[in-house]
From TrEMBL:
<feature type="transmembrane region" description="Helical">
    <location>
        <begin position="12"/>
        <end position="30"/>
    </location>
</feature>
<keyword id="KW-1133">Transmembrane helix</keyword>
<dbReference type="InterPro" id="IPR048136">
    <property type="entry name" value="STM3941-like"/>
</dbReference>
<keyword id="KW-0472">Membrane</keyword>
<keyword id="KW-0812">Transmembrane</keyword>
<feature type="transmembrane region" description="Helical">
    <location>
        <begin position="36"/>
        <end position="62"/>
    </location>
</feature>
<protein>
    <submittedName>
        <fullName>Uncharacterized protein</fullName>
    </submittedName>
</protein>
């Protein structure tokens, strides 16, 4: 049984840490005396947001466990602050890539997982999203590939090679 482990990209985590530190310390040195309440609240939210970015990037930098493991039978997605998610290949119909873009610049990349059987216990959000976006009905999981040390296309090829025996 061949397992493939994918870890967080330390270079991207370091870049996130540097950017978060620059913005956090830059915003914290702004003089708040002559600003109105709205500006003060927005700057405080910015400091809070980028402080969490510092914590998240430090967690990614010191992490020694993989973020993603692909075995012959399943995918294990290890979240940084939550329990791992297990996706069995015999329940998967297909994988595909989704790129998020802002003004034509790719900001993030995901591999979406379409399951053979839709989710049984649907909540209100799932019901509303399936009526508004019926083409996204079978998508239950997505794997963010930006923070991994692997190219999205290479990971997609590996995942598709694992579901072929189950789809014959």
């Amino acid at each position: 049984m061949k397992e493939h482990h994918f870890y967080s990209s330390k270079i991207k985590s370091l870049i996130l840490l540097i950017i978060s530190c620059v913005f956090t310390f830059g915003i914290s040195y702004i003089d708040f005396k002559d600003e109105n309440l709205f500006i003060i609240v927005m700057l405080s939210l910015g400091i809070t947001l980028f402080s969490f970015g510092i914590l998240y990037s430090i967690l990614l930098l010191v992490r020694t466990e993989p973020l993603l493991t692909v075995t012959d039978k399943q995918i294990i997605v290890y979240n940084v602050l939550r329990k791992p998610t297990f996706i069995r290949f015999d329940e998967v119909a297909l994988f595909f890539i989704v790129d998020m873009r802002h003004y034509g610049i790719k900001t993030s990349s995901y591999i979406c997982v379409i399951m053979k059987q839709p989710k049984e216990n649907t909540n209100v959000i799932d019901k509303v999203s399936s009526t508004v976006f019926p083409h996204l009905k079978g998508i239950r999981y997505s794997i963010q590939t930006d923070i991994l040390n692997v190219k999205t296309k290479v990971l997609l090829d590996l995942l598709n090679s694992r579901i072929r025996p189950y789809n014959l």
